Each structure stands twice: as C-alpha cells, then as structure tokens.
Amino acid sequence: MATTSSQSIEAEPYPFGFVPEKCALLIIDMQRDFLEPGGFGAMLGNDVNQLRRTIEPNKRLLAAWRKHGLMVMHTREGHRPDLADLPPAKKIRGRSKTCIGDPGPMGRILVRGEACHDIIQELYPLPGEPVIDKPGKGAFWATDLHGILQNKGITQLVVTGVTTEVCVNTTVREANDRGYECLVPEDCVGSYFPEFHEMGLKMIQAQGGIFGWVTHSDQIIAALG
Ligand code: TIU
Asked: Is residue 167 in contact with ligand 1, taking CB distance under 6 Å?
C-alpha cells in the first residue's frame, strides 16, 4: 500500500503536518457581495476595502495549488431566488432598509444566479473545482461539502476567504468537529474589523490549536515547492 508522508509547515501553535494529497484548499465566500461596493457587506455598513487586501495572496496561493493539481473548492453564501431557504430571522437582521433578496446595483442581494452573489473574477473557479452554495455562515451546514471531501479522501483543509470571524471561523469550527485538520493563512483571510480579524485568528490557535493552526501563505507555497 502506498504510504503518505507529511511535510512540516511553520504555524501557530506548532508546526502543521501537511499531507498535500489529503488537503483541500477551501476558499470561503470571495463574492462580489462581500468585496465590492453595493453588495451585502456594504449594505451592512461595512467598508469593503478592508477585505480587498486578501485578493492578491489568495490569487498566489490558488495558482500554486492548481499548479500542483491539488483539490480546490469554493463556497458562496446565498439563497434560492424564491428565498424559501432564507430564515425570516436572517432576512430582518440589521433592521436595514435593504434586505437579502432585495434589488441592489449588482442584482438581488445574496441571491444565487445574481452577479453580486458570484465569485470575484480574480479568483473565479475553474471547471472541475466544486462550488458549494451555502445558506448559512458555516460551509458544512445544509450543504454536501462533507460528503464531497470524504469521497475525495480529504482530511485536511487550508481555509481562506472572508470574513475571518464570521464565515471562516464558523467553517473552521464545523470542520474541526467533523475531524478535519484546518490550517488558516492569515494573509488570505480578512475582516471588515481589524480587531475581530486578529482575535478570530487567536481563537483558532489558542489552547494548543483548539480549532486549528494559523500560518502565512508563503509557508504553504514554500512547502508545495
Ligand atoms: N458580515 C460578515 O462579516 N460576513 C458575512 O455575513 N458572511 C461571511 O463572512 N461570508
């Protein structure tokens, strides 16, 4: 039987034992609705420029990952056009004049099939890279992500995207409870709130890596060789 060997990646709270063929790159919600003006993030009162620094590092990591033929997956937060899967509590949250499902400058906010809901051009999925449409913050809840990862023999995840303390943190926690080892490159995740970003990363690596490991994308790219 073929044996798999792991490579050590410098990380906090201790080195991550990276097994490339068992590790998927999971890019969370790099959607126009979160990264461009006029979308859901802006509707909530946030400055989308806070997130845009993650685009270049994600591009570099994605290119390296693809070059090595490793598994890439993307997620998008959003809802059915009929909004049947939108919990009333989520729709009214924020007491905003504009809600999820309402028309915005790039289409209906966080609705599947609309331009605003799609992934930004810079990180657009290639054919063959599964895209998970998720109605919640976590990528495992109400999706087929776990089944797809199991079918591919994936046990480790490099989790990137936005936002650090919301969808990235929720997904890392869900993954950790399902037995995945999660590595988060700090430069490839971002938040509208720098202090939440910092604390979101600390929460992952605290207590001996209670939810996972934190590193920099340069370390991962170096390990890929
Ligand atoms: N508002 C915010 O920070 N995030 C979200 O609503 N979704 C994700 O994090 N993707």
From this structure: yes
